[in-house]
Amino acid sequence: MSARFGVLGPLLVLDGAGAEVTPGPAKHRALLVALLMSAGHTVTHDRLVAAVWGAEPPASAAAVLRVYVSALRKIVEGIRTVPGGYLLAVDPEEVDALRFERMVANARRARAAGRVVEAADALARALGLWRGRALDGIDGELRRAHAVPLEELRLAALEERIELDLELGRGAELIGELRALVAAYPLRERAWAQLMHALTQAGRRSDALTAYQEARGTLVAELGLEPGAELREAHERVLAQELGRSVPNETPPDIADFTGRRAVLGWIEAALPAPGAAPVHLVLYGPAGAGKSALAVHAAARLDLPDGRLHASLRDRAPGAVLEDLLRSLGCPDGAVPSSLDERVRLYRSLVAGRRLLVVLDDATSEAQVRPLLPTGAGCLTLVTSRSPLFGLEAARAYPLDVLEAGEAVAMLARIVGADRVAAEPDQAHRIVRLCGALPLALRIAGSRLARRRGWTLEHLADRLGDERGRLDELSAGDLAVRSSLALGYRALSEDERLLLRRLGALSCPDFAPWIAAALVGRDGGRVMESLAEAGLLQERGLDRYGWHDLTRLYAAERLVEEEGPASAVLAGAAGEILDRARRARELMLPAEPGSGLTLSHTVERDLATARLAESARWLAAERSFMVAAVADLHRARLDEAAWRLAFYLTPLFELGAYHDDWRTTAALGLESARRAGHRHGEALLLRSLADLHRAEGRLEEAAGALRAALPLTERGEVARTTLRLGLVYRAQDRLSDAERCFTECLAAFGSGQGGGGDPRGSADALRALGELRADEELSRRALELYRQLGDPRGEAATLLDLAALCLAGRRTKEARELAERAAGLSRRLGDRLPAASASLLLAGTARAEGRPEAARAAATEALAAFESHGDRRGTAKARLTIAAAALDLDEIDGAVDALACIMGEFDALGDSRGLVEAQGLAREARRRRGLR
């Protein structure tokens, strides 16, 4: 069957009689190409609109698209309207690009089966379909999405066909074709290596060595790089034939700019077996681009094994084909290579039995591929590189290879670019490292581009890499490309694995748990996520948690848009599960909050309730980075209802853990989403959240302003809660009468049902606030009893601490200590470090009052560590004040004076007048006592 539609050149359409048909203007052609490249499959309206108009379609795009389709139907049969889009019902064999891909795949299968002549002829026929540049005359997203991969496949097929012809001994016939190929693609090292091979077959070894020097000169001049492994290996083979060497030395030469990896190099060298000892097999595994092959080559250059080095690039090659190469390398004549795999394995083992060899097996895909290639000779060492750990490989040891450490990554960049350029822009060098994710392949490409363009600054390249949309495009130089490396792994995945990986690309989070996989692809998502980790595209980040490299994330996002459309559809499908889990965790953290359905009676087992609350806090803390990223993802996708609700649900987590940056980011995004959606209640809730944040940070005017803005938007049932927060702000501002008025109004509203619906939790919160303001133990004890009845251990712990402070103020130190210890115990069981630190600080004050300054300093120092780790400036200042006071009690006057000077400045910056007054009083006392010395 001949192709009726051609895209391997200018767009070609033939009618039933074989006559060429004009497909119409540019947008008609773009529409037709989009349908052709998915022939037999549905293409959604959104994808077709994007193909025709790009990122900014006109408002009338949908209507105009129907007109274009109608016009195309007059010249192209088989365009069908289907749910969600259109489908071109033609046999893929009628589309030259699809036919080309099939023919290449068939040729590769023939090659894998050992049918070399059939494979070479099939590739030649496939290449004959090309009439020029792919999609010639088609521009925009279609070209980037389809033409570039097709051109890459054409070049790969051409090189594979040439390689097969070389295997068949046709080198002399290929020299002219290869000369033209290296002239057109002077940076494509494989073509140069094949030219050298062809010249060698033709008996022109000196010309082959000259070709190597030409290739090396071009690479150094254009990229600033020495030749890569394949070209150096070709050079070594030619030299070996020239010199008549009998000991194989197939590993590529050492990497000139290799950097770091001292730990794994030491591990390899320590594993080298002694002469006569059992062979050792080592697996170096890690993600695409981690530098596994470079490490294996560098390690091989450092090892001295007397009987030679073998090297095989496995990829998707069958073990039999690799064994054929290894046998020839070991001196087996062509005619003596057995035909069956079993016979080749037996012969290979016989030939290596008496030799002490190093065997490097690069880019292995499975244990079954590697097992027949392992040497069994005593003292042999095998280095296997793979994206998978190959744990099923018997008697092998594995080492995980991750990205470079920051220092190693900068050093690598300096060795490629030049130390002087990196020293001139150290911050930009670190920025490039960060944007490349410290991935060796990405760094090598980035460095190559800088080495080739001496006029570029590091800042210029960093700015180009800073745009996520084009980062993978930037990370390409010659035949090095991060996208191509990732594409190899992607194509090797199963359908389910590819589906999950690209749908994960809708998320910007650095790591995730298996539950999100189930939300994205169904209940088997967790199992598929494990498979992706085994394939090296995800990395385990602790128990039941996975992460990935940022460049893998960008590639997955590209595949999602290309294969399924905008990320918003995937996010919309997962939003329900994300919201449901966050809402349930919030309900456990805030029992008895109206609407939670979790008001607990006093009969609930308190230990069980406390354990559930602690578990909820731990879950949210583990999911914090994911949830923060999810808010941004939902906001970016304009899924506004989900975005503002998720931001609201997360507020208790951020408040409890003092995660102020995350709180600020999500609350601002949630507020914008609520306003964009016109949701007044959501806007009020997010304004209230921001007010809580402002109050926690000491920005009281901003807090009051946010609450006043929220009140007109607040639903009746939430007015009292907003008023209560306003009272807390007034309390912090020393507007005590205003604060008392707010608390009193709220207490009446919560108790009577006016605006609160008879809200016992609200009553407890109002009683606690009023008790603290009035220093009224009776009110605080009423609040404590309510929290206990509600099954709210967090409220109970906070109120116990309030009562402890009142007892301390009344010099009832024993009672204060007992209450603070109970509060500390509850907070620790809940996993609440900041409340536990506040309890430790109060225990420090109690110890001071009891005349135990050493105990006071120890307790305050423990609290200080927690406050500092959470970035709590106010708590940190109070802890340091207590430590300075204890130092004064211990007569360490000079240290106390110096510390208090800094502490006064911190309280002043925080706007904490009470803390400042207390610090000033201690400072005066310290200076007085120093003057008496």
TrEMBL record:
Which superkingdom?
A: Bacteria
In its UniProt entry, the species of origin is given as Nonomuraea dietziae
Family membership noted in the UniProt record:
Belongs to the AfsR/DnrI/RedD regulatory family.
Enumerate the InterPro entries for this protein. AfsR-DnrI-RedD_regulator (IPR051677), Apaf_helical (IPR042197), BTAD (IPR005158), OmpR/PhoB-type_DNA-bd (IPR001867), P-loop_NTPase (IPR027417), Sig_transdc_resp-reg_C-effctor (IPR016032), TPR-like_helical_dom_sf (IPR011990), TPR_rpt (IPR019734)
**Domain OmpR/PhoB-type: from-to ranges:** 1-90
The record's listing under SUPFAM superfamilies reads: C-terminal effector domain of the bipartite response regulators (SSF46894), P-loop containing nucleoside triphosphate hydrolases (SSF52540), TPR-like (SSF48452)
Molecular functions (GO terms): ADP binding; DNA binding
| UniProt DNA-binding residue ranges | 1-90
Can you name this protein? Answer: DNA-binding SARP family transcriptional activator
Q: Which CDD domains match?
A: BTAD
One of this protein's Pfam families, by short name? BTAD
